[in-house]
Amino acid sequence: MVEFNTDILIIGGGSAGVSATFAAASTGSKVILVEGLSYLGGIATSAEVGTICGLYKFSQSDTTEYVTNGFAKDFADELSKLSETKALHNNKGLHYLPYNTEAYKKLCFDLLQQKNINILFNSTVEKVESSDQFIQFVILKTETGTVKVNCKSIIDCSGNSCISQLANLPVITSNSYQAAAQVFTISGIPEITEDALNFLVMKELQKAIHQKHLEENFNRIYLVQGSLKNNTASFKLGIPISVTYHDSNLDTLRDTAIEIINQFVDYFSTNIDFFKNMSLQSIAPKVGIRVGVRSLGKYLLTVEDVLSCRKFDSAIANCSWPIEEWTQDKHVQIKYFAFDDFYQIPADCLISNTIHNLFFAGKNISATDEAIASARVMGICLQTGYAAGLLAANQSVEIPLINTIRAIQTKHFFA
Length: 415
Description:
CATH class of the largest domain: Alpha Beta
Number of domains: 2
Helix content: 25-40%
Number of helices: 11
Structural class: alpha+beta
Oligomer: single chain
CATH architecture of the largest domain: 3-Layer(bba) Sandwich
Distance between the termini: 50 Å
Radius of gyration: 21 Å
Number of strands: 20
Strand content: 15-25%
CATH superfamily of the largest domain: FAD/NAD(P)-binding domain
């Protein structure tokens, strides 16, 4: 068995994992990143989500303003340049950044190349060994065989709290998880504005459903905002199958989505003259799973914290996205907080309440169902990932927690 020693081991190369890796490596710590796919970005790239949310002020102003500074802002600014996009907003006051998937992959890889990070692609965690409230090592299944990694600290950015689950630690589960989504891209769209395209697709879908040509679940298809370019556009399908995490559930979700997408394209190209040249260009490689199992931290973020825009002395992230819950029986339920305000996430949401050297970031921070329905978006994952990277790295060299928190606030919060 191959054996590695590292200061910080990070699980998951999505938005949170890349941010955590960059932050930890910036302190001089030795870092190993484990990613299950052959590229970085997590659901941002594998599920082709298409927009970064949660970084901008919730405001009715036409001017988009960040609510955070530092790494997350720099990441978004560079992604905007690479994607040749700019932030957009809707009539509800939500601001977001459309991006190009390949640009996202490139930016993530380039950032970690700067730090000469050892990335173990196509690798998964098989076993976690802990004693005396410390994780001692993990066993990985990699492309070349089994690997043992000894680490001082570990950061779980897997999106489903794989470390806590494998170590039999307390976790937060849901009675029902948010509906999954499948993104797909259509080509052959005639010249049209994005608003007009969105309206036309919605109108034709409702008409087809009313006339019994398509089933009711086809009303779960939405245009991805900011995706219309060069006669192609991306759409998001809310999959009408419950997320259970049971065996074969992901396969069932994927198969169902592909069937609906093909029916959609066939119906529109055959029956609607405007879309006669429509064809299916691609389907995102992965189903978009919005929420999974969360790790239990020293603090549990609540719906009251989000909606009241609560601020914390130990804050490590400024967050400006509403509670957005996609359910099976309804399209989406959104709960907003006050305009021109934001809530914060405290450091204790990223720190295990049972294991001294375990941290987490991204979609598996310590939060209730409703709170994670806001905190799961990529702009917030970038922030919690970066914070977790600094918290873990600094703890490994015995820098006091409060010093790390103050350093994050100084660099990443506006004065």
